Amino acid sequence: LVVEKLGPKPPEAGGRSSSPDRVWAPSYSEFMAWRNTNKRMQLNCKSISEERERRSRKGVLVVAKGFDASVPEGCTPGKHVFHLESMLRDHFSSCGKVKSVCIPHAYYSSTIKRYAYIEILGKKAIERALKLSGSEMDGHKLVVTPPLRQMKKARRKSLKTDRYSRSKTMDVRGYDTSLPRKIIKSALVKHFSSCGEVVEVEVMPNLRNPKTPKFAYVSIYGEGAKEKALQLNGSDMGGFKLV
C-alpha cells in the first residue's frame, strides 16, 4: 500500500523515497511476512509457557540422603518410616507442593533405607529443592540430588505400589452419587488430603445401575492416616455428610 501526494513517480519496488512529502507503508507481501513471523513468535512463547506449566503440574523428583534411619527403642520400623517421611515432607514444603515422599520399605524388613524419593510440584521446584542440600533435619545434614538417571515410568509406578501396599483403605459413602465418577474422585482426593497422601480412589459402581456410584474405596498413605480419616466421619462434602 502506498500513501502519497501527487508528484513524481514512486520509486521501484523495494526502494525508499527521499521526498518528505510522501509516507511509504509496507507492501501487502511485506506485511503478511511480518504478521506470520510475529504469529510464530507468539506461538513459540505460548508453547514454552504451556511446557513450563505442564512440567510444574507433572512435578520433579529428587533424592534425599543423610537422615538418621536408625529405629528408636520402642518404635517399629514401619512407624519410623512414616515419621521420617512426615519430617521430609515438612522440610521440603518450601519448595512447592510435596506430592509424595517415599522411603522404599518392605513391611517385613527390620532396617530402613537411608534414602527417600520426593516428588514436588511447582515452578522452580527442582532449584529450590537442590538448595536444601546441606541443610539440617533433626541434627543431620541432608544431601539432595536429582536421580542418577531419569526414572522410568515403571519405577515410578513401583514406588506408588510400595506406598499403596502400606496405605490404609477406607470405605466411604454418603457423597452425591449423581455426580460423574471423575468429579467424585477429585472431590474425595481433596477432602482426604489432610489425612496423608491419597494414593488411590476407586469409585465402585452400583450393580443395579452401573452409572450410579454406590460407594468408594479411599486409600491413604501416611502417619496416622487411619485415625485422621476416621475423624472426618460425618464431615460435609458439597452439602452431603460422609460416612
Assigned CATH class of the largest domain? Alpha Beta
- C-alpha-based Rg, rounded: 29 Å
- Which CATH-level-2 architecture of the largest domain? 2-Layer Sandwich
Globally, the shape reads flat
Q: Give the domain tally.
A: 2
Order of helices and strands: EEHEHEEHEEEHEHEEHEE
Strand neighbour order, sheet with most strands = 4-5-3-8
Approximately how much beta-strand content do the residues carry? 15-25%
State the fourth-level CATH superfamily of the largest domain: RRM (RNA recognition motif) domain
Overall helicity: 25-40%
Helix and strand composition category: alpha+beta
Total number of helical segments?
A: 6
Question: Ends: how far apart?
Answer: 73 Å
Largest sheet, if any?
A: 4 strands, antiparallel
Low-confidence stretches: 1-10
What is the CATH topology classification name of the largest domain? Alpha-Beta Plaits
Region (Disordered): 1-21
Keywords: Repeat, RNA-binding
Protein name: Nucleolin 2
Domain RRM: 168-243
Descriptive key words:
flat, 13 strands, Nucleolin 2, 4-stranded antiparallel β-sheet, 6 helices, 34% helix, alpha+beta, 3-stranded antiparallel β-sheet, Alpha-Beta Plaits, repeat, 2 domains, disordered N terminus, RBD_domain_sf, 243 residues
